[in-house]
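S2.1 Query sequence (Large ribosomal subunit assembly factor BipA)
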Amino acid sequence: MSDKQKIINIAVIAHVDAGKSTLVDAFLNQSGVFRDNEQVVDCVMDSDDIERERGITIYSKNCSVMHGDVKINIVDTPGHADFSSEVERIIKTVDTVILLVDSSEGPMPQTRFVLKKSLEQGINPILLINKIDKKDARIDEVVDEVYELFMDLEANDQQLDFPILYGVARQGIVVYDPDDIRDIHVEGGESKIKKSAKGMNGFDITPLFETIINHVKPYPDYNEEPLQLQISALAYDDYIGRLGIGRVTKGIVKSGSTIAVARGDGQIEQKKINQVFVYRGLKRVAVDQAEAGDIVVVSGIPDISIGETICDPSDPHPLEMIKIEEPTLSMYFMVNKSPFAGKVGKFVTSRHLRERLDKELEVNVGLKVEETDSTDSFKVSGRGELHLSILIENMRREGYELAVSKPEVIMQRGENNKVLEPVEEVVLSVPDEYSGSVISKLNLRKGMMQEMKSENGFTRLEYLVPTRGLLGYRSEFINDTRGEGTMVRRFEKFDEYMGDIAGRVNGVAIAQEEGVSTPYAIFNISERVQMFIEPGTKVYEGMIIGMNARGEDMVVNPCKVKKASNMRAAGSDENIKLAPARVFSLEEALEFIDDDELVEIVPDDIRLRKKYLKELERRRLGKKIKTEE
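Output structure tokens follow.
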């Protein structure tokens, strides 16, 4: 094909909340993807409900824009370390990456991780310093920090000669020199004029488009070569089944054609492609064929998997398989067997649970599901607490009921059969007055300090901490820093087992019977217990309703009512003032529970409970329990 379309594939990579999705919004807005009268939400690529609520990207997604005669495929990648398995594969499909760095925070742990993967692939990045309108922006220092990061990661001379741009993605502005837009800001960081879809005050992201086109050579014309298409991501459609997503490395892929699939075990099987799709704007559009260099979606191969190569059957040349990082954390997903089971959820049986986990495996390659001795329980492993909790939250919203156990770290065996455990890099920023408490807690959790520096009233700490030591620490950290500290973490390596780490020191308050909690009972219990429930909450025997001030578990009766007497009616305690109950998010609940406890998840509630609901069963296990008199 002599008039081959120019195609450039780019990925936007950065840490959480650096502005990736907002930058993609600017690409789409300023390239005419949307009609003038079309209503467009912010962070349009974050289409999942949980992504919108939490303001994070969980699943990598594709879109494309046109600039002149060049088609630019854009991949919006996750910024959280738990979804790193998404990022690694995407890097193989792109020509360059836009490294987005916050003008105040500088390079963060996940920035380092994703950049390292990019440099290993031989990619020459483009640096974009974002949020230069911040009051605490330190643009020059951040650029120096990025240069240091590149050198630490052993970038070559060509990679070190990266172009640098500056911008405010939220306002749709990118410039070559930050001084160009200093005059459009007033006190408080607010602009003098209103933002529009085409940028602001005459500025837009044209410099970024120009830099991409000048920095990256369009993909070579490999259309006449034998077909090579490696699958780097999966999707699922209820009508057409599993979809494989990847870049056409060589040749032309055609709908309805017979192809060869090179499997991970070396086998080559003949299959037929049904449909071929490409991205136009945000839409997936069916086409008759797609050229080398384009990112495509193919249907018709129900068992296609990550890393497998679709080849020309007459001349198969498979590409090297993509290695998926191993899971670091596991937990047991169980059928909900509490006294309140089946009252709210639509999907409550082990068959429902198995089918839902199998469906998740179709697209979530960082996940691993294993059968257990019990037909009602499955061992589910993932890349971290957030990775697993997002799956649980999605299941809850879909109407599933389940119980899950405390997350457990997955150990490995090294040389001489030594036990190895996952270790994470943790970067914390805390007010100076709270740094002593944070350092003390991390040392107790077997953390090793790598760096410490203080400026502007905040202490920045870098630690290597075993994953075991970080389970349950986030809520403690928020309390210790009065909500002012920030903590980011990412998997670093497997290292030698670091010994025992103390778990939760407080016992819990356990409901004695089924019923409805009363203000009178809660008022008396709360003298010794931080309550997790409000008056009027339905409880059952074995349900955890609070945290004891002491180390032992305590059985209490939250349903006790005040007896009527000659002096006072039974309802005369209605004006009792109670402290607010502690409400757990799903992640906090998973962090809080102990080995003999479960989190019960139903569509409208999250409850904590003991594995064994009856007090007699728990006593047989030798747990020290105090019964309320």
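The first helix runs from residue 20 to 29. The mean pLDDT is 80.
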